C-alpha cells in the first residue's frame, strides 16, 4: 500500500492507500447492526482484503527503507500547513493516514499531491515506469473523540498486528515512532 490518503474537513478522516494491484479496503467500518445484508457482505469483503494486506501480500515496495522514508517525508512536508497529520503508518504494501485538513484544502487535492510526488520518486528509485498506487483510496469521517482514539490505535497497531514489531513505537515509519523520538507532540489534537 502506499500513500495513505484520507479526507476530512471537520474532525479529520483516515484513509488508506494500497500499491497498485493489491486491492483496497476501508480502515474503519460502521457497526454491523447499522448495515443491511449487502452492506454486511461488503464489510466482510473489506475485512478479507484488509487481512490479506496486513499479512504483507502483494508488492511490498514500501518495505524498502529508502521508499518508506521518502513517502513519510512527503506526508510530513505540508504538515501544519495544509493539514495536521494526527497519525500515520507506512506498511510494506500500504499506508494509513489520519489528517485533519485545514479549511481551504480538500482531501482529493492533498491525496493527489502525495500520490503524484511519491509515485514519481518511487518509480525513479525502483527504475520502473507506470502506476505505483492503485486508483482509489478509502476514507472515513471521524465522528468524535472516541472514534479518533480508535482510529489512531488502529493505525499505530497495524505493524504489530502484522507481526513486524512488538510495540507500535518500534515501527520506524509511523507516528508512534516519531512521538517516541520526540518529533511530535505527545498528546494528539482532539476533535
What does it look like?
- The chain is α+β, with helices and mostly antiparallel strands and 191 residues long.
- Helix content is 39%, strand content 14%.
- It is built from 5 helices and 4 strands.
- It starts with 12 loop residues before the first strand and ends in an 11-residue tail after the last helix.
- The model is unreliable at 1-14, 16-35 and 186-191 (pLDDT under 50).
In terms of topology, how is this protein built?
Layout: E1 13-18, H1 37-54, H2 65-77, E2 83-90, E3 94-101, H3 107-126, E4 138-141, H4 145-161, H5 175-180
Antiparallel strand pairs: 1-3, 1-4, 2-3
Helix pairs in contact: 2-3
Offer a quick outline of the entry.
By secondary structure, the protein is an alpha+beta fold. It is 39% helix and 14% strand.
Poorly predicted regions = 1-14, 16-35, 186-191
Residue share in β-strands: 5-15%
Helix/strand order: EHHEEHEHH
Alpha carbon gyration radius: 16 Å
Termini gap: 27 Å
Briefly note the structural class of the backbone.
alpha+beta
Q: Helical segment tally? A: 5
Shape: globular
Strand elements, count: 4
Helix fraction by DSSP (H/I, runs of at least 4): 25-40%
Q: How are the strands ordered across the major sheet?
A: 2-3-1-4
Give the biggest beta sheet.
4 strands, antiparallel
Mean pLDDT: 77
Distinctive features:
4-stranded antiparallel beta sheet; 14% strand; alpha+beta; 4 strands; single chain; 191 residues; 5 helices
Amino acid at each position: 500500500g502506499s500513500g495513505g490518503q484520507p479526507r476530512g474537513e471537520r474532525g479529520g478522516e483516515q484513509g488508506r492507500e494500497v500499491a497498485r494491484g493489491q486491492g483496497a479496503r476501508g480502515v474503519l467500518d460502521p457497526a454491523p447492526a447499522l448495515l443491511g445484508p449487502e452492506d454486511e457482505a461488503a464489510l466482510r469483503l473489506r475485512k478479507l482484503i484488509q487481512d490479506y494486506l496486513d499479512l504483507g501480500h502483494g508488492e511490498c515496495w514500501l518495505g524498502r527503507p529508502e521508499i518508506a522514508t521518502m513517502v513519510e517525508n512527503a506526508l510530513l512536508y505540508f504538515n501544519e500547513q495544509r493539514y495536521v497529520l494526527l497519525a500515520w503508518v507506512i506498511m510494506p504494501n500500504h499506508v494509513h493516514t489520519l489528517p485533519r485538513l485545514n479549511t481551504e484544502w480538500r482531501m482529493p487535492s492533498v491525496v493527489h499531491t502525495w500520490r503524484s510526488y511519491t509515485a514519481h520518486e518511487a518509480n525513479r528509485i525502483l527504475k520502473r515506469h507506470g502506476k505505483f498506487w492503485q486508483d482509489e483510496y478509502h476514507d472515513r469521517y471521524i465522528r468524535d473523540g472516541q472514534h479518533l482514539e480508535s482510529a489512531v490505535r488502529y493505525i499505530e497497531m497495524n505493524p504489530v498486528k502484522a507481526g513486524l514489531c512488538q510495540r507500535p513505537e518500534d515501527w520506524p515509519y509511523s507516528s508512534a515512532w516519531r512521538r517516541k523520538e520526540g518529533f511530535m507532540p505527545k498528546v494528539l489534537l482532539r476533535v
